Structures are given as structure tokens and as C-alpha cells.
Amino acid sequence: MVDASAQVRPGGRSAKVRAAVHRAVAELLAEEPAEALTIPAVAARAGVHATTVYRRWGSPAQLLTDVATSRFSGDVVVPDSGSLAGDLERWMEDVAVDLADPDTLALMRATIGSGPEGGCACTADRHAQLSAIIERERSRGGDAPDVENAIDFLLGPLYYRAIFSGEPASGDWARRLVTTFLAASRALS
Question: Predicted confidence band at 59 (pLDDT cuts at 50, 70, 90)?
Fold first, then answer.
């Protein structure tokens, strides 16, 4: 198995090739169904030889995982409103907006469909952000819920709605989900 992270160099031609290939993946997913995403099609769109793509990523699944990891890292800022409820509401609204983007959804659906690593690539940064919000509340001395429960209760429905339904979550819906989660967490404490 090819380890994409070990084979990508940080600058120069490698960085340009990586950027061109990532852009090609995004463009192809916006135009075609995920099944049409092949290494030769990506290479042609990126203007590189297919062996370059195979050498770095090995398979469409590994390529999608790399693109998703890059796309879903650091794109949503973790807010600091001074309260857990405020932080979660603002963050959930931002995540809901991001998940409503058709290009984001196309990448997520293709990546998740490519294998188990794909799902992790689409959610790892969100898990880290949610964990940071909860840990900050603990450092303020607040009664913070369990991170795993927050992931299941907040991100689960948000991602389900984005990926499987035709109606992505609205900001109001996301805020109500936070209110319900915090009330349930307090009741169980």
C-alpha cells in the first residue's frame, strides 16, 4: 500500500502537482458522478501523467482520502463566545453551512464511498474541533458533556442530514440540536 503522506514533498513541483490533482478531483466530482473518477481522468484534467498520480496515491480511494483530509482541515474556525452553548451553536451553524455546499457534499459522498479511511478523512478535523470546544469549557470550570456523546448527538444528525437527505441542515435546526443536546446532558448529569 502506498502511504500518500510519505510520498508528497512540501514544495516546488510536488506542491504544484498536488494542487493540480486536488483541483482536478474537485472539478471532476462537480461535473460527473463519483464512479467516473478514475486516475487517468484526474491525471488528464490535472495535466500530469497517470503514473505520477498512481505513484503518489496508488488508487482513487487513497487520492480521495488525501483530498478530503486537505479539504476538511482547518476550514471551520472554533469559536470562543465565552459559553459552551454559544460556542456550540456558532460552530454547528458554520459546519451546517459547509455541509450544505454541493461541492463539499460531492467530495464527502465520493470519499465515504471509497472505503473506511474516507469517512475518517471527512470527520477527523470536526471531531478535533468539537473536542477543543468541550475541553475549553472544562478549562473554564464549566460542566462539559462527554466528547463522544457530543459527536454522536451533534455531528451524527448533521452529517446524516447532509449526506443522506435532500435537505441539508439549516442554522436554526443546528442551534435547536445544540439546545436539545445540552438540556439532555444536564438532565443526565
Answer: very high
- Give dist(CA 130, CA 88) in Å, integer: 8
What's at 51, amino acid-wise?
T
Cell numbers 514544495: residue: 11
Whole-model pTM?
Answer: 0.78
The dihedral through the CA atoms of 173, 92, 184, 163 has a sign that is: positive
The SS3 of residue 11 is coil
Spatial separation of the C-alpha atoms in residues 65 and 22, rounded to whole Å: 11
CA distance 37 to 24: 10
Burial 41-68 (b: 16+ CB within 10 A, else e): bbbebbebeeebbbebbbbbbbbbbbbb
Secondary structure letter of residue 35 according to DSSP? G
Q: What is residue 115's three-state secondary structure?
A: coil
Q: Distance of alpha carbon 164 from its chain centroid, rounded?
A: 15
C-alpha cell at 21: 490533482
Per-residue pLDDT tens over the stretch 32-51 = 888 889 999 999 999 999 99
CB burial of residue 11 (10 Å; 0-12, 13-18, 19+) = exposed
